[in-house]
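User: Design a sequence. Structure:
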């Protein structure tokens, strides 16, 4: 027996509405957090998986379906917060399901090396690493690039010498919390110092030295170039190594002390071809045109370009740390075209940097300087120098104007004055 009209009209709509509300309440409730299991399933044989063969055969389904659902929910949330494209989120879920299906221990943390092995498939490796990291299911077993680089560069040196260099390398990379204390240095700095000192280290190894403790002042003078930039850079690299080893009591003396280092010779700035600059300014690519305009008009440095935020441009001005620049009409026009292209190409991105591309649109970091160079079609630093040389040529060598307009120091402006060209060199740009 049933009441009349129970399954039609208002009764059906009310039941459907109640069901939808229950689902929404269930979805809004916080999901219980998951942590990797503590045990590990041992395997009899460790074989390398050829994941590229998965393109031709199916991967096994995840053995822990609850964990797969848990990670899927985090992908959805992370994609919404970072403005991911639907295709990126779908491929991220697919990659996570592949990794979960290949696990020897269901529910365990996933090694980063296993994730990078999926690079042969059409899945976003970086996005997968992000999701695993925020959920606590990432075991980062990757060897840092700088570690591999250091090992490769010192492979031909004697073992005792490498041991001393390893101490210097660890101090530079991680810093030191015990006296003498020091802060970690950037990887670029470490590479430069070792690259400058490497010719001397190889020469000492060829002459029979086994340990840096054996090196004397005469050995340093024997390998140093006579003068100029090569002498300066090699001595800087050796002073960094020997100074750190002396401070940590690995060597008895620092053989590089009280050795004269010549001032490095300055590189003379050179103008760029006018046709190349004009092609970049009037390029149909909005990104190339606006990069060329910002550098060509205001001589912005590459690191300033990549750090620009959308909020740095307002009220017809470009706001930089310590500088507020009124934008010219050609720059405004190119900037408008680029912003239109950016909003149409990546409408949901959460990245607030002015310049983004298909990869950086899915995270919050800036683009790389190499991308700026590739998109511009020339070095952004070279175009900046061309702009400063043009201004110097038009003002007849006014150093004060260069300092005020581009934020240069007096010493930096004098470097450009040495390359002052005669009037008329830049007439073709008009």
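Assistant: Done.
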């Amino acid at each position: 027996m049933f009441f009349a009209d129970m399954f039609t009209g208002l009764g059906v709509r009310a039941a459907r509405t109640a069901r939808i509300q229950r689902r929404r309440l269930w979805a809004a409730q916080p999901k219980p957090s998951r942590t990797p299991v503590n045990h590990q399933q041992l395997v009899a044989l460790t074989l390398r998986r050829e994941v590229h063969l998965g393109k031709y055969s199916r991967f096994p389904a995840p053995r822990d379906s609850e964990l797969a659902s848990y990670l899927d929910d985090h992908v959805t949330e992370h994609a919404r917060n970072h403005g991911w494209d639907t295709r990126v989120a779908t491929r991220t879920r697919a990659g996570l399901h592949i990794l979960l299906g290949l696990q020897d221990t269901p529910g365990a943390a996933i090694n980063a090396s296993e994730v990078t092995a999926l690079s042969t498939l059409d899945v976003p490796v970086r996005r997968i690493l992000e999701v695993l990291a925020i959920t606590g299911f990432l075991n980062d077993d990757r060897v840092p690039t700088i570690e591999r680089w250091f090992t490769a560069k010192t492979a031909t040196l004697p073992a005792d010498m490498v041991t001393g260099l390893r101490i210097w390398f660890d101090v530079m990379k991680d810093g030191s919390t015990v006296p003498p204390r020091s802060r970690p240095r950037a990887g670029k700095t470490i590479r430069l110092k070792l690259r400058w000192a490497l010719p001397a280290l190889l020469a000492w190894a060829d002459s029979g030295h086994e340990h840096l403790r054996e090196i004397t002042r005469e050995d340093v003078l024997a390998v140093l170039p006579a003068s100029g930039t090569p002498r300066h850079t090699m001595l800087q690299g050796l002073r960094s190594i020997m100074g750190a080893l002396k401070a940590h009591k690995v060597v008895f003396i620092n053989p590089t002390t009280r050795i004269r280092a010549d001032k490095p010779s300055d590189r003379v700035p050179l103008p760029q071809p006018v046709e190349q600059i004009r092609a970049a300014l009037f390029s149909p690519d909005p990104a190339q045109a606006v990069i060329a305009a910002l550098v060509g008009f205001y001589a912005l440095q590459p690191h300033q370009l990549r750090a620009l935020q959308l909020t740095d441009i307002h009220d017809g001005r470009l706001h930089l740390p310590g500088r507020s620049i009124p934008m010219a009409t050609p720059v405004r026009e190119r900037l408008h075209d680029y912003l239109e292209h950016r909003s149409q190409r990546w409408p949901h991105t959460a990245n607030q940097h002015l310049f983004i591309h298909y990869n950086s649109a899915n995270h919050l970091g800036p683009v790389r300087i190499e991308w700026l160079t590739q998109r511009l079609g020339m070095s952004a630093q070279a175009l900046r120098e061309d702009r400063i040389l043009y201004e110097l040529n038009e003002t007849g060598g006014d150093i004060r104007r260069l300092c005020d307009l581009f934020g240069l120091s007096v010493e930096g402006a004098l470097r450009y004055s040495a390359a002052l060209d005669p009037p008329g060199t830049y007439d073709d740009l008009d």
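Strands lie at 110-111, 138-139, 313-314, 317-320, 323-326. The chain has a mean pLDDT of 86.
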